[in-house]
């Protein structure tokens, strides 16, 4: 009886730590099903960085970073709060002088923008345009005990990517 309680507690503790890893696995699965392939992954105990390339798409690259801010017993009380940052990158082959002027105008408009809570910040490199945003999300909303809400994860990622793509198409 006592061993069962200890085993359940240990299992719960391990599952709490694995919530972000399960979420990352679902992101990889979703992106693969949408013709994106994983080109880079860097993980530590509480953060993950994923980089995807697209086969035939408007986007050239998509970078996703997930940083777990709350863990342990606190995550049971307030949820597994994490910061998810996403960068959508498009590639420009040729840069005309008018494009450089437009880049400078956009960069000046975005200089004080903070890419949080759905706000999108646009950055230009010479041949790349990068749209960035960050969200604070509760991973427990998507993964509870042994249940993974794959459809909700898909909808959340889809919504964020569409927001970034729309901001890039306007340029």
Characterization of this structure:
The chain has 171 residues and is an alpha+beta fold. The protein has one domain (10-169): Yope Regulator, Chain: A (2-Layer Sandwich). It contains four helices and eight strands, in the order αβββαβαββββα. The protein has helices at 2-33, 73-78, 97-110, 150-169; strands at 36-43, 47-54, 61-68, 81-91, 121-124, 128-138, 143-144, 147-148. The strands form two sheets. It has a six-stranded antiparallel β-sheet with strand order 1-2-3-4-6-5. The chain has a two-stranded antiparallel sheet with strand order 7-8. It starts with a helix and ends with a helix.
Q: What level of helicity do the residues show?
A: 40-55%
Number of domains: 1
Number of helices: 4
Task: State the total count of DSSP E strands.
Answer: 8
- Order of strands side by side in the largest beta sheet? 1-2-3-4-6-5
Q: Short summary of the structure?
A:
It contains 4 helices and 8 strands. It has 171 residues and is of the alpha+beta class.
Secondary structure elements and their pairing?
Layout: H1 2-33, E1 36-43, E2 47-54, E3 61-68, H2 73-78, E4 81-91, H3 97-110, E5 121-124, E6 128-138, E7 143-144, E8 147-148, H4 150-169
Antiparallel strand pairs: 1-2, 2-3, 3-4, 4-6, 5-6, 7-8
Helix pairs in contact: 1-4
């Amino acid at each position: 009886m006592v061993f069962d309680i200890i085993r359940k507690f240990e299992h719960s503790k391990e599952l709490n730590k694995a919530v972000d890893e399960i979420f990352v696995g679902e992101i990889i699965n979703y992106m693969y099903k949408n013709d994106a392939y994983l080109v880079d992954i860097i993980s530590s105990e509480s953060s993950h960085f994923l980089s995807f390339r697209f086969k035939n798409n408007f986007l050239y690259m998509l970078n996703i970073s997930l940083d777990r801010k709350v863990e342990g017993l606190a995550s049971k009380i307030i949820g597994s709060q994490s910061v998810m940052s996403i960068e959508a990158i498009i590639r420009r082959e040729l840069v005309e002088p008018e494009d450089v002027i437009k880049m400078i105008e956009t960069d000046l408009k975005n200089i004080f923008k903070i890419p949080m809570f759905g706000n999108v910040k646009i950055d230009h490199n010479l041949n790349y345009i990068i749209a960035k945003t960050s969200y604070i999300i509760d991973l427990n909303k998507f993964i509870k005990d042994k249940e993974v809400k794959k459809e909700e994860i898909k909808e959340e990622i889809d919504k964020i990517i569409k927001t970034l793509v729309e901001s890039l198409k306007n340029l």
